[in-house]
Amino acid sequence: MKLLRTTLWYAVSIAVCVVFLFPVYWMFAVSLKRPEEIFRSPPAWYPSDPQFGNFVVLFTDGDVWTIVNSLVLAGSSTLLAMAAGSLCAYGIVRFHTGGEHLATFLIAQRLLPPIAIVFPLFLVYAQFGLADTHGGMILLYTAFALPFVVWMARGFLMEVPLELEDSALVDGCTRFGVFWRIVLPIARNGLFATAVFAFIYSWNEFLFALVMTRNEVMTYTVQISNYFGPQSTFWAKISAMSVLGMIPVMLLVAAMQRYLVRGLSLGAVKG
Amino acid sequence: MSPAAVAGTVAPPRAPSHAGGTRAAGVAYVAPAVFVLVLVGLLPFLWSIWVSFLNLAGSTRSGDFVGLANYQKLLSDTKLWAALGRTFLIMAVALPVQLVLGMLLALHFQAERPGKKLFVALLALPAVISPMVAGSMWRLMFDHRFGPVNQMISAFTEKPVVLLWVVKGSLPFWSIVVAEVWQWTPFMFIILLAAIANVDRDQMQAAALDGAHRRHVFWYVVLPAIRPVLIIAVLIRALDLFRLFDVVWQLTKGGPGNRTETISVYMYIQGFQGFQTSYVAAIVVVLAIVLSSVLMLALRRVRLDR
Predict the structure, then answer these.
(1) Is residue A271 part of a domain?
(2) CATH code of the domain containing A166
(3) A117 is a domain residue
(4) Which is higher by pLDDT, B265 or B18?
(5) Of A79, A58, A68, A118, which is closest to residue A218 (Cα–Cα)?
(6) What is the total count of domains within chain A?
(7) What pLDDT score was predicted for residue B7?
């Protein structure tokens, strides 16, 4: 009876994983197929002769540049958002700065659909020539990541014991010194997780990039959408680029399992 | 992505430190973040309020003042209301399915068995993949000739089936729902798994000892205990579904015709392909007002419930 239940449990678990991972498997499988095998009907369940040609094409055609763009935009904006965001979170936690109003203001930034944020911004960017520039996009992604960073960092900073800070202040440390030398090192792991998730969200972002980037700083997500042409669909490139886009996220999340619940729920739920 | 706000309602901020902390001192800490958000969030929004009273087209710099004309147009725009209704319809179908499936998975994975962590890690994957990539993935899956979905159906029915998933009849709607449910059921699962694991074990055991059926333990002990988290998870998903864009854009671009246009897709098409700048600005303003009122009310409820 017990054996039966255990077997059943594993059977269900494996079945669920197969169902949920099949599309991901399919994307990987297509990316490893030869171009002529991709367009076989009925489709082949696995690449008969796995090869990396589809990835090589991304490099030789220069499409991989969009991955570099995504990396630069997500990376720089994460750094900026972490700097401004952790300071802001500390102000909220220790001084209760802004109270309800600041909280409401932060909510408002995340409340609207991105299209409602990016449309007005596009009007302004168009006026000042900021659309399709690195600076403009990094500023946009920094603002995009900030509310998330503030709220997630806030949870971790609240866990830093007040007594430690108070005794450092008594010992003559400045307030900023306390933040820099005591609070940040203690909350290090949580803040690192916050940065990782902020990076993932910017890395995954599509709509802002679709609106704001044309040539100069086109991200890999926009590049993938461009592969879906009105006449033909470039499946080899779609799959290879998607795999390149998924791999960093998979690695980061594997390393961040402990913080997954917080990261997904924007710090609202402690896992 | 969403309401950070909710976080605040779950765990209120600790009282200010006694050791030399004043509100004024905190201003310096929050200033950089607030500056960026005012610059990139608030100012453009105020600008678009102004634009909504003009008749700008494309990205031209000047237009005539037309008063409330754009708002009048908005009220009688049947396509806009259809898009809004469609967005809610997708939400009404996808959200309950995600919730129930996620809950079932979370209950299944309460068992402590070797390998559980690996299963959970694998199941979390869809929720962290770019929604845009997820949309492309399902476009490949649903392709009528080269995709595996039709092939699987054919294997079941034992005759060739060629369903035009992203083109024909109500199939595009369902392909969007499938992609949505696939990507975000894991989100519900991960959140609920943690929430249920945090429920007081003693209480559950006591209820079980008193002869309560497992179903009753779930309804009367587990569910009330995880209620706050449940509300947050549903709120986050509802807001995400309301802004649904990426998956739709990849699967159908709102088509065929405008049969799968969500509110975000409609606004994108009007703004960036129809160049109705001032009109979309008016929609932005109305959405902002309606959404913030609704959410403030919702958050007040959550807060009261605590």
Answers:
(1) no
(2) 1.10.3720.10
(3) yes
(4) B265
(5) A68
(6) 2
(7) 40
Q: Do residues A24 and B129 lie in contact, with contact meaning Cβ atoms separated by under 8 Å?
A: yes
Q: Are residues A13 and A138 in the same domain?
A: no
Establish if A269 belongs to a structural domain: no
> In CATH, what number does B4-13+78-305 get?
1.10.3720.10
Q: Which residues pair with B141 in a beta bridge?
A: none
pTM of the model: 0.90
pLDDT attached to residue B85:
95
The mean-pLDDT minimum among A26-30, A114-118, A218-222, B160-164 falls in B160-164
In a domain, A270, yes or no: no
Beta carbons within 8 Å of B219's beta carbon, 6+ residues apart: none
Range of the domain at A9: 2-51
Are the Cβ atoms of B30 and A269 closer than 8 angstroms?
no
- The verdict on A258 and A163 lying in the same domain is yes
Residues of A in contact with B151 (CB under 8 A): 42-43
Q: How far is CA A165 from CA A7, A104, A182, A228, B88, in A?
A: 52, 28, 7, 55, 48
Same domain? A108 vs A131: yes
Beta strands in B160-234 (DSSP E): none
Q: Which amino acid is at A32?
A: L
φ, ψ of residue B203 to 5 degrees: the values are: -60, -40
Residue B240 near residue B2, CB atoms below 8 Å: yes
Which residues in chain A (232-251) have CB-CB distances under 8 A to chain B? 235, 238-239, 242, 245-246, 249-250
Q: Domain ranges for chain B, please list them.
A: 4-13+78-305
pLDDT at A59 exceeding the cut of 90: yes
Contact predicate A85/B4, CB 8 Å: no
Residue A153 shares a structural domain with residue A43: no
* Mean pLDDT taken over chain A: 89
CA atoms within 13 A on the CB side of B196: 21
Q: Does A214 have pLDDT greater than 90?
A: no
A27 neighbourhood in chain B, CB within 8 Å:
133, 136-137, 140
Task: Verify that A65 and A43 share a domain, yes or no.
Answer: no
User: Considering only residues 201 to 230 of chain A, which have any Cβ-Cβ distance to chain B shorter than 8 Å?
Assistant: 201, 203-207, 210-211, 221, 224-225, 228
Q: What is the pLDDT of residues B38-75, one digit of tens each?
A: 998 888 888 889 889 988 887 666 778 888 899 999 99
- For residue range A227-270, what is the model confidence (pLDDT) as tens digits? 987 777 788 999 999 999 999 999 999 998 889 888 888 777 77
